[in-house]
What does this fold into?
Amino acid sequence: MKIICIGRNYAEHAKELNNAVPANPVIFMKPDTALLLKNRPFYLPEFSSDIHYETELVVKISRLGRHIEKRFAHRYYEEIALGIDFTARDIQSDLKAKGLPWELAKAFDQSAVLGEFTPLGKRNIQDLRFRLEKNGHIVQQGHTADMLFGVDDIIAYVSRYFTLKTGDLLFTGTPAGVGPIQIGDELCGYLDNNIMFSCRIK
Ligand code: MG
It folds into this structure.
């Protein structure tokens, strides 16, 4: 199982980190050891002093496929969840400045918070609203209509490079409002008004 993540997929978020809006999806991956499941707590790692939350819609791939055409991409997922792409922003800034890969900032243990999956059903995947609350206050609000690259575009794009397998996960990028965490914080993700995960910082 692999975790494919999209960077800079919401214009307002690209702007807040002073990144240009990309012409193609920005892709990186996390290993399966990054998963943090079942509302388990996140332990701040010693190697970073600036871990940021990035709340994202997560799509589970339901069929094997490669070179998937956009018009068929909707056949490759049935379930969605919310997650957090935890990012060591201090390390990422350093790696970006040096033009180096981001793995140390993005792929560390517990960096992929994942809530329970729910069937997409008849909902339009590009018309979903989600939010993150930190200690009861809303810090991020996303509408999937604002993605620069929609889910079907992403599937078509990444499957040109990587075979998608059943159970692979797609973290689809974060809206604006990313920020730091500290010990004692509680992060709760909501899709519409349904709580999808909670994560205590320790
Ligand atoms: Mg992200």
The mean pLDDT is 97.
